[in-house]
């Protein structure tokens, strides 16, 4: 039943062949705030209903011509049928039941008191109000369902049209959604149904482990979720990034993982490394020759050339030495990126390696008036399995940096100890320090801290990048803490076995 009238002014039609009933009902209902129309016959009532919308009809069953039952039959065929309250002078149960069976809402027997009419019409008005609220709730529900369906359709359309592969899993690692790009990127065959475990369509263990770790909520307390890079048989490289799907109570409902095709980047990196290696090899020999010849000229000109000439040649010698150092660093980076470093690890005692580096660099620190200290534990450290040359490059770079960025009369202290299942080495200086804003950049290639104190310090900006790359290759980590004008501390963790824990 559809109700079109306003509850503020209910429209009522009184149909009765008795004038007193019509007029009396009008007076009572008008006081209730109803808008009342009247009809004395059945056909007249139908004519009124064709012209106006009515909510309630008070209908006498016994009228000349078309009786109330016939009118009721016509009313039930209307698109917006009003509520019908039957008025009958024959207040028998049979008559009331028959009228109710044909769709009447209620009945009232003649003669009736004003209070009786008010009660019956009041119930009808309440019924109309409930009908209207139900219709509004139904409309709101339909709109909400339509909006949800539209939003779901829109979201699915967007996801399916994305060029990157996307897979969504539940908390058990079962596939909830997988777009076509995901299947295409992984060369999956056939239709992948929802509810299948992620290990069914994907046979890469590292990828499945990442998906399961995220799905099980192991990264809820951190934003540092690892990525996973893997190669396919057709020389295609993919990078997986994932995030947990959070519920209202911050529980993990599953994971959403995005695949990016990084094949072009890998090819570019390989070409870049090959180019750097080729150019570096071609440049190192002539630069070394120039450096040796400049050293020879300077030695032969002692006492014969002017101070200005010696200064110019010395600067040229320094610059060629810097270029040779840069080429060496570029070659080291190239070897790290291609995985050519640390291919033959062997047991190394860090105490012996650190003592050797200290002896070699002690003279350099002494010329700057710096004090160097090496603190080693009384009990021998466990040996680590690594490439000795890589370890020498790591600690050599760190100690040389400490010397270069520490002023005269400064101190450099190296400590080594056993820490859990690892060996820990700290390189601490009392130098210029690093601003907090630059701490997260010091391991980037070619980055150097620039200020009035460090502008005369030469360097390639590759040393720390090389250190980080070498340590990652052997499963180690490096962190840095620094205070401007107070000094810097680098902490290196090298695992004796397995992977070291993250430093806080």
How large is the share of residues in beta strands?
A: 15-25%
CATH superfamily of the largest domain: Histidine kinase-like ATPase, C-terminal domain
Helix content: 40-55%
Major β-sheet profile? 5 strands, parallel
Strand order of the largest sheet: 2-1-3-4-5
> Total number of β-strand segments?
17
The H/E string reads: EHEHEHEHEHEEHHEEEHHEHEEHEEHEE
Radius of gyration: 45 Å
Question: Ends: how far apart?
Answer: 68 Å
Shape: rod-shaped
Tally of structural domains: 4
CATH level-two architecture of the largest domain: 2-Layer Sandwich
What would the CATH topology of the largest domain be? Answer: Heat Shock Protein 90
Q: What class do helices, strands and sheet pairing give? A: alpha/beta
What top-tier CATH class of the largest domain fits best? Alpha Beta
The low-pLDDT segments are: 1-7, 498-504
Arithmetic mean of pLDDT: 82
Assembly state of the chains shown: single chain
